[in-house]
Amino acid sequence: MPIGLLKDILNEKPEFGRLMGIDQGEKRIGIAVCDPMQQIATAVDMVPKTKFSVYVKDIKAIASEYEVKGFVIGYPLNMDGSEGPRCDSVKDFAKNLKDSGLFGADPWIAFYDERLSTSAVEDFLIEDIDMNRKRRKEVIDKLAARHILQGAIDSF
Predict the structure, then answer these.
(1) Pairing verdict, β 41-48 and 28-34
(2) Whole-angstrom Cα distance, residue 20 to residue 149?
(3) How many CB atoms lie under 10 A from the CB of residue 2?
(4) Where is pLDDT greater, at 108 or 138?
(5) What angle do CA 82, 84, 85 make, to 5 degrees?
(6) Residue 17: alpha-carbon gap to chain centroid
(7) pLDDT digits (tens, 9 = 90+) for 92-126
(8) What end-to-end distance do the CA atoms of the chain give, in Å?
(9) Per residue in 33-92, pLDDT tens?
(10) Per-domain residue ranges for the chain?
(11) Contact at 8 Å (CB) between 144 and 41?
């Protein structure tokens, strides 16, 4: 299965089964999963970003627990829609996931436009829930992953 933009590889998406949403931050990786019918995304966990060989095992443990069939990774396009240097980092991350061999020989990995996803979640946590800064840091990455995955699901 391919790695690429969701719109380009949608027809190769696993028809049924859970997908994992990933928000790759600088210090943490937010994780979300959807239901097997691919309708509702739920924030699941946050994995500290250390060495890839360390945190990929945490991602694998979560993927195994939820029997994940594919991945949707936030793709940080620039506001004008162009790819910036952070997109290269996400591509490298996806390639490393695939090359690790922990997720099968050829996992389905889609990139989904994540512009403003973290900002939208942070605004919600501040304005609607009035959450303090320390607590926001604890949940923002996994909620951003949920936002990304739900956006992708809604576009199917």
Answers:
(1) antiparallel
(2) 7
(3) 13
(4) 108
(5) 165
(6) 16
(7) 999 999 999 999 989 999 999 987 656 665 666 55
(8) 18
(9) 999 999 999 999 999 999 999 999 999 999 999 999 999 999 999 889 899 889 999 999
(10) 3-155
(11) no
At residue 130, the pLDDT reads 62
| Residue 114: HSE in the Cβ half-sphere, 13 Å Cα cutoff | 29
CATH topology of domain 3-155: Nucleotidyltransferase; domain 5 (3.30.420)
Give the integer Cα–Cα distance in Å for 136 and 91: 27
Cα 114 to Cα 64, 92, 97, 107, 152, distances in angstroms: 25, 17, 19, 21, 10
Q: Using CA atoms, how far apart are residues 29 and 22, in angstroms rounded to an integer?
A: 7
Q: Which amino acid is at 46?
A: M
Q: Which whole-number Å values give the CA distances from 103 to 18, 125, 154, in the listed order?
A: 13, 33, 25
Alpha carbon 103 to chain centroid, angstroms? 15
Query: Which tokens sit at 9?
Result: 């590889």
